[in-house]
Structure formats: structure tokens, C-alpha cells
Amino acid sequence: MTDIRILVGSVYGGALMTARAIKQALDADGYSALVLENPVLDDITSDAAPLLVCTSTTGQGDIPGNLLPFYVDLREQLPQQPGRPFGIIVLGDSSYGDTFCGAGELMEEALYETAARKVGETLCIDALDTQEPENEALPWVRKWVSMLSI
Ligand SMILES: Cc1cc2nc3c(=O)[nH]c(=O)nc-3n(C[C@H](O)[C@H](O)[C@H](O)COP(=O)(O)O)c2cc1C
What we know:
Elements: E1 4-9, H1 14-28, E2 33-36, H2 42-45, E3 51-56, H3 68-77, E4 85-92, H4 102-113, E5 117-118, E6 123-126, H5 133-146
Parallel strand pairs: 1-2, 1-3, 3-4, 4-5, 4-6
Helix pairs in contact: 1-5
Flavin mononucleotide binds at residues 10-15, 56-61, 91-93, 96, 99-102, 127.
């Protein structure tokens, strides 16, 4: 059984590496995490595991190409997920100004429209602050899973 499904959006691999580090840490802590590098809607409608979005931001506040088909289908089909817990980790770069970490906001809005329930505050990781996003992500994730009661 998968306890946590990680939906990845990444252009250059930073968010993917972060997701893999999260999986390793969660598995070591006794959970079972699945990293979805090219998620499709079926990946979330086929079970009820908590969802962790781990995406970077591209373009002008946009969602990376590998996560975009999932996002578009989610918005178009709005499969209802009442109360389903989700969390958001988003990589960005504050030098982009208004679009800083915009992909996280888009994913959050879409998940809210399915009636899913956000757990914890979004973690925004700024490329200007760190080249090692997993160092910020892992403590955040440990706190996040503790709030899930699974
Ligand atoms: C072409 C391009 C566009 C970007 N646009 C944004 C943006 O609009 N907002 C933002 O916060 N970061 C933006 N970024 C920064 C990336 O999100 C950031 O560098 C991130 O760490 C990349 O993660 P990845 O390796 O998983 O793709 C952009 C980066 C590039 C190269």
C-alpha cells in the first residue's frame, strides 16, 4: 500500500531530486511513498493516499511540462476528492518577482476545486537562498506527515 503519492513537476531536475530525497526519507521512516514523475489523473483517482505536490515553477509562474497534462485534466474533470489531504512544496526563484513560486498556487487552486484539504503551509524554496532544496524540504515533510495522522 502507498501511504503518500508525490506529484512531481520539474524542468531541470531539482524538484525531481527533491522528491526522490523525500521518498527516501519517508520510506526510511516507515512510510511508503511513490514518486510520480509523469502523473496522470488515474494515479490519484485510483486510491485515496495523501498527495504531496513537489514542483518547480517555469515560464512566468507556470507548471512544468511533465506536470501540465495532469493539471489540465484535473481542472477540466475536477474529480472530487472531499477531505483528501495534500501538501505543496514549490521551487522557484524570487528574482522572478510576481510569479515567484506560481506553480504551487496553481496546483493549490486546482486541488481546492476538487474539495481536497490542504495540510500545512506551502513550502516555497527560493533558488536564490539555496542550491540544496532537500535541506529545506525534509524537515518540512517530517512535520507535514506528522499532521496527516496516517
Ligand atoms: C525559463 C525559466 C523560467 C522560470 N520561471 C520562474 C517563475 O516564473 N517563477 C519562479 O518562482 N521561478 C521561476 N524559475 C526558477 C525555477 O523554478 C527554479 O530555478 C527551480 O529551482 C528549478 O527547478 P527544476 O530544476 O526542478 O526545474 C524559472 C526558471 C527558468 C530557467
